[in-house]
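Researcher: Here's my situation. A collaborator sent me these components and asked whether they could plausibly form a single complex. I don't have experimental data yet, so a predicted model of the whole assembly would be a useful starting point for our discussion.
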Amino acid sequence: MLNTNGTGAEGAMTYPAAQNDLNLQRKKLAHEQAEIRLKKFTRNRASVFGLAVVTLVVLLAVFAPVIAMHDPLAMNTADRLQGISAQHWFGTDNMGRDVFSRVLYGARISLTVGFTVGVTSGLLGLIIGLYASTNQVADNILMRICDGLKAIPSTLLAITMMAVLGADIKNVIISLIVVNIPNMARLARSQALVVREQTYIEAMRCLGSSRKRILWAHVVPNILSPMIVQMTFVFASAIITEAALSFLGAGVPAPAPSWGNILKEGKDVIYTAWWMILFPGIFTALTVLGLNLLGDGVRDLMDPRNS
Amino acid sequence: MQKFIARRLLSVIPVVFVVSVVIFTLLKMVPGSPAAAMLGDLATADDIAALEAKMGLNRPLVEQYFIWIGNMLHGDFGMSVVGNETVASVVFSHVKPTISLTLYALVIATVIAIPMGMLAARKKGTGADHAATVVSLAGISLPSFLFGLFLMLIFAVKLRIFPVSGYVEMSRGLWPHIRSLTLPAIALGFMNAALMMRMTRSTLLEVLGSDYIRMAKAKGVRNVALVAKHALKNSLVTIITMIGQSAVQMLAGAAVVESLFAIPGLGQLMVNSIGRRDYYVIQAIVLLIALFNVLINIAVDLLYGVADPRVRAA
Amino acid sequence: MKKVLEVQNLCTEFKTERGMLKAVDGVSFEVNEGEMLGIVGESGCGKSVTSQSILRLYDEKSFVRYTGDILFHGGSLLSLPEKEMENVRGAKISMVFQDALSSLNPVFTVGNQITEAILIHQKKTKAEAKNQAVEMLNLVGIPDPARRFYQYPFELSGGMRQRVMIAVALACHPQLLIADEPTTALDVTIQAQIMDLIVDMNKKLDMAVMLITHDLAVVAETCDRVIVMYLGQIVEEGGVDDIFDHPMHPYTVGLMNSIPKLDTAKGTRLYQISGTVPLLSQIPVGCRFAPRCPYATDLCRKEMPELSRVSDTQGVRCHYRNERSGGLYQQAAGCKAG
């Protein structure tokens, strides 16, 4: 009678003839697992939608110089505050600039800020969290600092830092990284602690693996997935916070076409130029929604309970 | 229980310490001299030096920190750049609108989120559940100020039901007061409502899979009561945490929303102070909000004791 | 003897990723007034699913499908609308579960959980319900019941929690109590106490009991009739003496043989039924026990035997029931429980 795992009749394992066979089997298994994951992902319509939206925005941003019909910074006071037209798909703003081009270039700003903040805060958080998980004293100090930083709501902390550092895209990125490190570090630390408590780590210690090797070869790969998921969410929230900062005048300085800046200028003329609110608003919301859905989808993939 | 409270209060100290150090450091990083900013362009170098000495700005940093803490404990938060007011009075005069707005937003969020979360959990997998999920995803992706802008566009500009901006004090009438805060409160509360709804739903679903729910059903408890009484009470701990976190997030989000709708609260004060380089005010507001955050966390922890008898016993 | 419960050809199917899985396949039995019926079998044989199907505890909208029927005092339970089923649960038929710690709501007091059952089904005031609850606590043997009324489940010991669960189940004097492995999670001495309590309630309240367990010894001591289940089907049924004196189905014999005996020679290996229970998604064709049966023939592997009577009181599902009564089985069995 065949057992369910497809091994031989009496449940005996058939040993591979040579090392080559073993590697081949390993590759095949990895390939199969990747296929199953891909299938599972594509079945989740929401995450596919998220991926599609994010890809679209990325493409629009990358090809902005090609797609945009006007220079995002070119002012033309004769054409100010015009509605939607054939030459200006999203209308013009209060200085006669083409809103469509500005929105496209604004995507570049948002994506750059979001991506940089996400990846950097993730990496730094990973290192800090890992270090904290290995050293009791460092853990206490570092986590207290993180707690303190978290006590200040992120937008306020970002605003304050911008006030101190001055309005500049570089400073926006720095502020947002600082704001997001505590959560990343906490996540890395708690995940690392969980992994370290697992029995297989204990087994490896018994077999003589050094602590460093265990850390890098075993702990890190296992905490990478939740970290990557969280980085996606940080990407999304960084886009929101940058837009909010620019909206308040404390972010990327004008005349840069950040979505927040367009919204800020649009608010002043809200009675006449609704297009300045609608289009950057929709782009922001859709990009963030796409990232959130993508992050959710990837997280569901990693969750072993959902099989 | 007393030991629990005492321990909890003590753990606050390191956090508050770190917060104060962070704020102090940030402020010290500001280029230029606050004394010069306060005296204006016509001040001479001697005047500035004199004020700096008076303000203790030429002492070593650590000493300055303790002087600062000491002053604050005496209620002296420094002087604002604007006029001749103390920071304390400026901040105090801006507190009420923010509290009204935040409370209003919290109520809206909770009243929407919890029943909808319960409904989505009960009708899991049906159309109602999917609709709720879509709405909550939209809420999470729409930051408050963006949603506020959309609301403003539709309800204030196009439909003219609510005012575009401005704040009416409660003393001038309850309804005008509420009306002036409605769009801002919805904008502020929507994102949190979405988050809370998702959390309520997932916590309830987790609880609904428990053995004691099965037992309650086996003894004849009606379907509605299973969710509304049994599952909900067990989810209270999570729900309380959620509400606490939302309160703090809203306080922060209020900054942007207040600027948008011209509500003269702490948020708007903060934003204006940045433009004016009124650093002592900024410092005081951030400190105040951080402290408030800490207080809410303590309150939440204490409420756990009320909600879950196992915590009380520990 | 009047029948309290009659299960007619019940099939319970669950919707899973791999299609519909039948956990209970054509089970029929009855419970008479005041009797104790034992249902035994290994984990996964469908005994818990059967009991939870009787009370319709599974989510019918998305997850489960029942066919056949369950009659309670002649009236169909499966066709009752949910509102009326709620009236049956806890009042006419009650259930006690295995793990009292997870089955009692941790944030409500013990007394509250009993009065809730009373207040749902009976028109009483809060005070009357409280008195009745305290009486129930007393009846199930909890000392100082008035004080315990206000305690939370985590404040009680395992045995007491189980007694509380029984009190909750019996609060409205049901006519049938389904006890799903009530003692599995308890220490041996407490097990004995709880079983004594259940037997006591069975006699005192003239209440039928369906005892689900994998502990044959308990069944031998307390039950009037026994049903043996394997992989969703009944393989043998009969009076307790029938089953323990002359078991007919190889599986039943195997179960009995698996009980270690005091008089076995030292160094003898413990008997095991060979093989393992197959997955529900891979049910073998023919007799379901054939792969593990030492007497299986080709006929067994091809055709599913029917459950048929071998005497007034005993029934067995085996092709060779007539050939092998007495004889081989007796040799293999060679034991009496208890």
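Model: Some features of this prediction you could bring to your collaborator: The two ends of chain C are 28 Å apart (CA to CA). The interface with chain B takes residues 55, 57, 62, 82, 86-91, 94-95, 97, 99, 102-108, 116-117, 120-121, 152, 154-155, 165, 168-169 of chain C (CB under 8 Å).
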